[in-house]
Amino acid sequence: MCGICGTKGIAPDSFREEHRAMLVSLDHRGPDEKGQFRDPEADLFLGATRLSIIDLTPTGSQPLFNEDKTLVLVCNGEIYNAPVLREELFQRHHHFYSRTDTEIIVHLYEEMGERCLDKLKGMFAFALWDKKKGSLFIARDRLGIKPLYYYAENGKFAFASEIKTLLKLPFIKKEVDVRALDLYFSLEYVPSPFSIYKGIRKLKPGHFLVYQDSGVKVRPYWNLGNYKSGKDLNFLETAERLEHLLKTSVKEHLLADVPVGVLLSGGLDSSALVALAGRDVAGSCNTFSIGFAEKTFDETKYAQKVAHFLGTRHHHHIFTLEDFIGIFPFVTGHLDEPLGDLSVFPTYFLSRFARQHVKTALSGEGGDELFMGYPTYLAHKFLEDHKQVPAGLIAGLFRVLEKALPVSSEYFTFGFKIRQFLRGENCLRDPSARHLCWMGSFLSSEKADLYSPDLRNRIITALSEDPDQRLLAKTEIKEVLKKIQYLDIYGYLAEDLLVKADRASMAASLELRVPYLDHELMEFVWGLPADIIFQKRLFRSVIGKYLPHEIMQRKKKGFAMPFAKWFETKDFFPLVEDFFTEGFINKQGLFNASTIKQMLREQTERRKDHRKKLGTYIMFQSWYRKEELPL
């Protein structure tokens, strides 16, 4: 695991200090060593910081080369099928200098060129300099597990694992892209290919980029939606195939020269990983969990039950308000873009806790998307099953329920879910639109009141110049539940959960691995009918023999912290109090002070539940303040 960066089109010897600063900014992603390659004739610089996981010797250091050193590679990630590929390449007379998995890429590129991506299994973002072609070949893994940002303007090209690294270059300016800002307040994240800064782009998942002096070409190489169902299997055969793919993926994700742990919440996905990993780990597996003193948010007893049942070496810690306050500046300082997912704080705390014992750990991201586990799938199915009922009547019935249920700061109560459902009442017959309403933060009508007149006008102008932005959520998939699954995988999972997991874990110098996102496993499950995978039906049938009955019967519970409870305390609120003062808001000139103050008042008086909106707003302001952007 590494942090990578590079520049093309600027004399490397004239930017030595800037390049050094770029590498320093990536220390947390690779604290074990730094490496770099310079080619003054090509105006090229490549750099990497290393977290050594496979081949801990100096031979595994980056950059990596082919035999005649006409190819140079820097790579962030892990290639899980490296042993198989190494043997194939050895048979084709390739010579390897190390045992590291990522050296596979340079030799595979020699054989296949850009098509080498089709053979790689793993998580990766890499840059490969092809001296003969005079081109940079840059690629990101299929689901975007590892990040890659780039800048390409005025004959200058730069890339990096994190935005902060690119901002070390003097020709890249800090200017907010108001299109990205507007998307953030809708979605709680900034989706690819946008970044929060003008001029800096994200390489989309499943895409590669070729940069030559003539410019940039970006191409897709994988899209889950293109995969069709394979041969017909009965339920038993399908379950057997799924079990084989799960076991294979977990085994491959345990490939390492250091101990591998598992992050265990006590939910179905992480518990299954522990059960399957235990089959291939010598001795007891290390598992890690955190809990909360606030009981409706706490899953401690379930994690401990799984750990005891499976005989792991379990490590547990309670995450408190004091812990949250203590890490708040550090975590927000590591987020190069605003991210409204507040679970980034306990995720970092858990990663830091686990890092005391291991350098890499398995995590359960992707299980709910792959097996349609979220409660939203139940809501979508309910509406599709009752198409004959007028949407207005359904919304009216839910309105009656809403009035009968109090606003609460506890874990997502029935009342909270009812109110989220009603956010989409004006588009209940449009699956994509209602899904984004349910999952997001501010509706379009609410953003009109949130923004200052000046910002609102700037956004309107920017959107009129970029109509494709509104196509981000569209897909040609017809079946409703599959359409929602696709939106979850390429939206919430790729742009929120994986970003959160990467930033939080790498801030603690911990490598997180996500076995549910093995692309062969995903392709197989994607090809199955929705009714087989809906609410984890097939998954449960496979893993039931590995886990306690109580865990199998648990209802879905997401990883969340008691932000609404903590927000109102005298200890936390002073950290963010400035963001709610009229003087600060008016001076900044981005938001409507009366709207912000009304949200705060309604939340503290428990008249409305604005926890998602307030979290989205606070995380934006925390990022904005850190970046010291002009008001």
Task: Quickly count the helices.
Answer: 27
Beta fraction: 5-15%
Terminus-to-terminus distance: 37 Å
Please summarize the sheet with the most strands. 6 strands, antiparallel
What's the average pLDDT? 92
Kindly describe this structure.
- A six-stranded antiparallel beta sheet has the order 2-3-1-9-8-10. It has a six-stranded antiparallel beta sheet with strand order 4-5-6-7-11-12.
- Helix 13 packs antiparallel against helix 14 and helix 15 runs parallel beside helix 18.
- Helices cover 43% and strands 15% of the residues.
- The protein has 27 helices and 17 strands.
- It is globular and about 75 Å long.
- The chain is an alpha+beta fold and 631 residues long.
Would you summarize the structure shown here?
The chain has 631 residues and is of the alpha+beta class.
Please outline the helices and strands.
Elements: E1 2-8, H1 16-24, E2 33-39, E3 44-50, E4 64-65, E5 71-79, H2 82-91, H3 104-112, E6 122-130, E7 135-140, E8 149-153, E9 156-160, H4 163-166, H5 178-187, E10 200-202, E11 207-212, E12 215-220, H6 235-253, E13 260-263, H7 268-277, E14 286-291, H8 300-310, E15 313-318, H9 321-334, H10 344-355, E16 360-362, H11 367-370, H12 375-385, H13 391-404, H14 414-422, H15 431-439, H16 444-450, H17 453-464, H18 480-507, E17 511-513, H19 519-526, H20 530-533, H21 537-543, H22 549-552, H23 563-567, H24 573-576, H25 582-588, H26 593-604, H27 611-627
